[in-house]
């Protein structure tokens, strides 16, 4: 029974406990922060604030140590067993991290005639940089072919078998997402390597998985992991790129000599410590159980459709277990209106197109996204309001 564990953790989020009349169901946009993260920020700013590197005094040295320690912390949090062979680069978030790879690394890796796999129905942050690389290289006479990532119809997962058919010896770079920001399922990234072979570089958008479930680079066999600190309980502006230095040229992003976001980094260290102590496996179970409760409740209501979830199941198909994200659409109520109605009952959800790529959903939807502070009672109250509208 995870309930006593969850109650103790929920109590550590002042914004959540301070507003019992509200239910925050928008953690895929940004997560709330536990007291330990607020304290770490306060402690850093009141005891050590300085610029990092090359200082000759205590505060500067402490800041340098904080930055280096947090690099290692990120690698360890991602299950990196050989951190001496990888690099951690701090960025403002996933969008900037992916763009940095596209700007500073990928052009030097690709050759004329190479192919890149782009997931056209994922978050735009994981599409735009790769199309940009193709466009920039074309100007130099280097032609790169974009292979659209195939998706299984209706299930919200990639079609790994179709990918294996499309991928060839010239497929050298594959962009994937760990947990889809609209469909909410685990994209079974461990199957991507089988589909594309040992030589392709796999870049993982982990914006919706870091902080929500265990992420292990050793198990996933990926080359880049990119995430946003603000979705993993740290402050905005505190993301990172983890890069394995095994395939292709070394990842040496520009801009490293500027001032890092030291306050964000302090918050990230505290957030990763907090998450490790809480247990990413238990957080995953908790939010997946709540998502299942919501999904099952919604499937009993005719007025709603769940995105990335087939209405009727063909034999042998299973509904993917959601990792804390369930996106729905009412057959008659506009998603913006539904968002307003839900907020009038105290529920904070996101309604629109969720920055999904071109091939994604054309009409808006309402996304319910969870973290460890959400409760069974919140889901049941939400379901009863949704039922009253059906
Ligand atoms: N990728 C995915 C899967 C996301 O959900 C998001 C945020 N919605 C991003 C990338 C972009 O993250 P950020 O805004 O923190 O850069």
From TrEMBL:
Taking every annotated instance into account, which residue ranges of this chain make up the domain Aminotransferase class V?
24-382
- Cofactor or coenzyme needed: pyridoxal 5'-phosphate
Gene3D superfamilies under this entry? Aspartate Aminotransferase, domain 1, Type I PLP-dependent aspartate aminotransferase-like (Major domain)
The record's annotation in InterPro entries points to:
Aminotrans_V_dom, Aminotrans_V_PyrdxlP_BS, PyrdxlP-dep_Trfase, PyrdxlP-dep_Trfase_major, PyrdxlP-dep_Trfase_small
Q: Which Pfam families match?
A: Aminotran_5
Among PROSITE patterns, the record links this protein to:
AA_TRANSFER_CLASS_5
Assigned keywords, A-Z: Pyridoxal phosphate
Give the reaction(s) catalysed: (sulfur carrier)-H + L-cysteine = (sulfur carrier)-SH + L-alanine
Determine the domain of life of the protein's source: Bacteria
Family per similarity comment: Belongs to the class-V pyridoxal-phosphate-dependent aminotransferase family. Csd subfamily.
Q: What is this protein called?
A: Cysteine desulfurase
Per the UniProt record, the source organism is Streptomyces djakartensis
Instruction: Provide the organism lineage as a comma list.
Output: Bacteria, Bacillati, Actinomycetota, Actinomycetes, Kitasatosporales
In the UniProt record, the gene name given for this protein reads: csd
């Amino acid at each position: 029974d995870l309930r006593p564990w969850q109650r103790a953790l929920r109590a550590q989020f002042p914004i959540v406990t301070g507003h019992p009349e509200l239910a925050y169901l928008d953690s895929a946009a940004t997560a709330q922060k536990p007291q330990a993260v607020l304290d770490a920020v306060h402690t850093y700013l009141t005891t050590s604030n300085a610029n990092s590197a090359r200082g000759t005094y205590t505060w500067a040295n402490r800041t340098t140590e904080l930055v280096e320690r947090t690099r290692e912390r990120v690698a360890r949090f991602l299950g990196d067993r050989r951190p001496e062979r990888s690099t951690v680069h701090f960025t403002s978030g996933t969008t900037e991290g992916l763009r940095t790879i596209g700007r500073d690394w990928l052009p030097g890796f690709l050759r004329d005639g190479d192919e890149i796999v782009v997931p056209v129905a994922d978050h735009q942050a994981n599409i735009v940089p790769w199309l940009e690389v193709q466009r920039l290289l074309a100007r130099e006479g280097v032609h790169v072919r974009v292979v659209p990532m195939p998706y299984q119809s209706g299930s919200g997962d990639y079609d790994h078998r179709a990918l294996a058919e499309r991928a060839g010896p010239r497929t050298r770079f594959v962009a994937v997402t760990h947990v889809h920001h609209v469909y909410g399922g685990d994209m079974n990234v461990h199957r991507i390597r089988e589909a594309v072979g040992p030589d392709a570089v796999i870049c993982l958008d982990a914006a919706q998985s870091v902080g929500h479930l265990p992420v292990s680079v050793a198990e996933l066999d990926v080359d880049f992991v990119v995430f946003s600190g603000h979705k993993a309980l740290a402050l905005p502006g505190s993301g990172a790129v983890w890069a394995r230095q095994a395939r292709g040229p070394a990842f040496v992003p520009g801009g490293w000599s500027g001032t890092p976001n030291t306050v964000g980094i302090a918050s990230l260290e505290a957030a990763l410590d907090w998450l490790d102590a809480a247990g990413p496996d238990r957080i995953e179970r908790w939010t997946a159980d709540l998502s299942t409760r919501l999904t099952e409740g919604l499937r009993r209501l005719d007025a709603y459709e769940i995105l990335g979830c087939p209405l009727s199941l063909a034999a042998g198909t299973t509904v993917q277990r959601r990792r804390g994200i369930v996106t729905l659409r009412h057959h008659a109520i506009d998603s913006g209106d539904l968002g307003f109605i839900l907020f009038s009952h105290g529920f904070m959800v996101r309604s629109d197109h969720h920055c999904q790529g071109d091939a994604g959903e054309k009409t808006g939807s309402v996304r319910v996204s969870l973290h460890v502070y959400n409760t069974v009672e919140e889901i049941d109250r939400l379901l009863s309001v949704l039922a009253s509208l059906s």
